[in-house]
Write the structure tokens for this entry.
Amino acid sequence: MSDKEDSSQTVRRITGSEGLLLSLIEEGVDTIFGFPGGAIMPVYDLLYNYRDKLNHILVRHEQGAAHAAEGYARVTGRVGVCLVTSGPGATNLTTGLADAMIDSTPIICISGQVHAPLLGSDAFQETDVMGFSMPITKWNIQITRAEEIPSIIAKAFFIARTGRPGPVMIDITKDAQFAEFDFSYSKCEDIRSYVPRPTLNHEHLAEAARLINASRKPLALVGQGVLLSRTEAEVLTLLEKAEIPAAWTLLGKTALPPDHPLNVGMLGMHGNYGPNIKTNESDLLIALGMRFDDRVTGNLSSYARSAKIVHFEIDPSEVDKNVRADVAVIADLRDSLKELLLMINENKHPEWLNQFKSAYQYEYEKVIQKDLYPTKEGLTMAEVIRRINEQTNGNIIMVTDVGQHQMIASRYFTGRSPRSLVTSGGLGTMGFGVPAALGVKTGRPEMMVVAIVGDGGFQMTIQELGTVAQTGAAVKIVLMNNHFLGMVRQWQQLFFDKRYSFTELKNPDFVAIANAYGIAGRCVSKREEMDDAVRQMLTTDGPFLLEIMVEKEDNVFPMVPTGASVSDIRLE
Amino acid sequence: MEQEFTITAFSENSVGLLNRITIIFTRRHINIDSLTVSESSIKGIFKFTIVVRTTKPMIQKVEKQIEKLVDVLKAFSLCTGDIIHQEIALYKVPTEILTASNEVESLVRKHNARILEVTPDYTVIEKTGHKAETQELFDSLFRFGVLQFTRSGRVAITKGKEEYFTQFLKKLDNEKAKVEH
């Protein structure tokens, strides 16, 4: 028997609570985001003994714990862990679970539950955790017996991190936390009913290669699947070998180097002009780990009508869900790209590539230059992002909240490394930014972490400034303040006759709030102060709030209005 | 175009799975016409038989989303032509209608139904068949007075020699054997 087997097979009689913590340690967990309460107190009591092994971060609201775990998972590739109590503790996780589900983020949320005999009796702080979390988790389970804990934790980690990752919810009754059992641990490596890594179909792959080799106007669509499978290098080799221009989805952004000549920009509603327009001129879309979200495709009936579609995807249910694929290669991208690269011919598409360059030039003159180097008085969000790029050379992790600032950050941030942009894509969760940034900083303490937030979303989880202050996590928060729920206001301006129905905000003194938490801050409303303010933020030890008073009624362009074709992208 | 589909899904026996499956239909606003769950020919593996009316592209998406569930081994969407299916119906009628004339007796004969229990008060008739057939007998008995009526969900087997699922399990075993060698 090897040493490894020896350690995991040793039997010890302990409580369910201790078994839970030991199981987490067996899975390599060293960080937990959580909030205690009645039904999880036995676990918290034991956690006190394991402070040297498990770093518990006390959030101010369970939603913050879920987003922090998401941020942690996104940048480390590890599973983020949350620990909460029953009832409201568990329901407060809902938004984070839904966010992690739609953005394929591996987190495990553990909630305490009332004693098993009380289940279903509307006991104090009882809620149907299984019921409410079912549609927003990859898997969920309720534990009522201590001896189930190790095998279920092992299964949960296996499910959360393999295949298309996602959130797992585990509900543990209080009596199971107290009960004693004989602890032993072995990792889960196989579940009969679960196929995390589909077998590659070589015929489909050969057909995909044939289409790629024959294409005269190929366009690669790079999604988060590339980052999750860590195949950024393989994708780049593919693109370079066959000279294929590549555009990215919001979550796929940092899979490609920002200044690579084949990187033609962002897809979708607020993406770049070229990739949107050219989608409808391409003869082949090569979708790599993306799911043709409606924010990417616009009107489906006029989407990519002249293109064949090759869909590389690990989740079979995404194939033909929104867009019908001519060839689907259902496999882990790592498996398919490895073989695909051997079948792809070297190729050149200079004329096709030039069309993207002209499109970029057109967009630059119409939109980008005015955004990045404005000559008007009001400050633009884009010039703030430009200054952060300039001062950091893109060697930071940027986290965003949701709204106009998110789109601007995604368009203009020049993050150098894969996974250097963390944002809430599918769910579009306002309030994601600050707690996610806390999780990111916890997972990658060596990195400069900058959260870009708006004045709307910031106030949805502003209480997490308390967590930032208590942990001392050096999160830099850049608040783009326009006194509006900016994206909604933009839609009201463009599509609802400027009827600004409940989108204007009377805001507090944000710097004073930061200061009250013991966090340094500065508010800037003049262009000439910005460089210095960004420098001050980046060089100040610890967390910092930089509030920028931006133009109140700026809009994000380009824009594909909802229901319009990607060809009908508006530049103003 | 909407048509009738029968989805069969094979799963582990886990708490809440039925809910997970029905959520997929609920989200897409598809009404379930009939649902039957019971243990399959393989011990520990449960078979769901779900009848819905929807379009072919929709049923294909639903099938994949069901199969994606961690505890589901395999799901199939089948057209009516792919399956032999059956339902069972029970009819409780007053016994006096059988003694009053032989009309009910001839209905029982005509419909290939059978009598399960006779008491002085009531008689229970059983009929298996497609929904239309069990409905036809109900309609015929109606004027005599039906005390109780109940109909099961659909059970179905495929027309292929072997169940698709058995083929799937064999494939799974082969793949596993390949990995192990």
